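question for whoever is on the cluster today: can someone run the full assembly for these? two chains, 343 residues total. i dont have access anymore since they changed the login thing
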Amino acid sequence: MRKAHNIYKSEKLIKVSLEYDEYSKIIKSITIAGDFFLYPEESLDALEVNLIGTKLEKYTIEQKVKKCLSSSEAFGFDSESMTDAILGCLNPEKNT
Amino acid sequence: MSFKFSKIRILETGYNSGPWNMALDEVLMYCANYDIPILRLYGWQPPAVSIGYFQSMYEEVDVKKCKQMGIDVVRRITGGGAVLHESELTYSFITKIYPKNIIESYNLICDPVVMCINKLGFNAKFAPLNDIIIDNKKVSGNAQTRNKNILLQHGTILLDVNVEKMFSVLKIPSEKIKDKMINDVKARVMGLNRTFEQVAYNLKESFSEKFGAEIIADNLTMEEKENTKKLTCEKYTSDPWNWKKKL
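^ ran it for u. tokens below:
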């Protein structure tokens, strides 16, 4: 299991911390934070829960983000930047 | 849809702690009448750092330093960034009648704040999503949440800015860029250099004009006070709330 952390600058900052399986790239736990706005706020909790068990690859993550935030309004990021923020955790230079 | 009200209930609740201030905002969300919104004006004593709903206290705030300096810390129910509340007037506006479009609702409620600032001799304007600026410098930050068809927007109107103090209690990515960040913020943020009372007077007048409403000065009820005390203890001073996100 590997821990990773990424800070991504979209219009607002997105900070992601996750644990994933190094071989399968499956997310075991994830926390997303930042100074953005999201309505309703509970959508972020739902996104975090839904991302558990998801493989860290662009298409899969982006589909999950789009689906979970489809009834929400976000300010300071979009689905693409949220996906990039999550996948940025795979960049070894930024991993802890 | 017309956004006019016959009356606005005004609450001037003075200077209080960060947790109490945030608890009262939440309590008032559930006290608004359908057609009588609430405008609350308040300050912070002791000073406080509030973080946005989605932020992590661990990541954003040097809590040990805050304790040494007698500064409260609290997490808001609204999004946005970390703020040091000290020399400012803070307002809350709670209403059940509002535009469903989020940018429109920010625009609607920020408009009387802009009017207030301009009555004090400035040329302020709304800068979407949630700022008010004078000559490209931020003078007011605003944030809102919605629950059960009730909208709460709260915002700061800066009277003075102490950027060095702000950066002494907020965590920054690297000490090496601290000076640059301080200079950047100094160039982008300003205070009005007016008194709390001057801003309060003009803000009440501006909300009254904007919404065509009579302003009704009021006090908190016993029930509101009791609920605020309870929520302060059970939520806004609690670790599960303030330290919810750990990265």
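summary bc i know u wont read the tokens: Chain A has a mean pLDDT of 93. The beta strands of chain A are 2-9, 13-20, 27-34, 37-39, 73-75.
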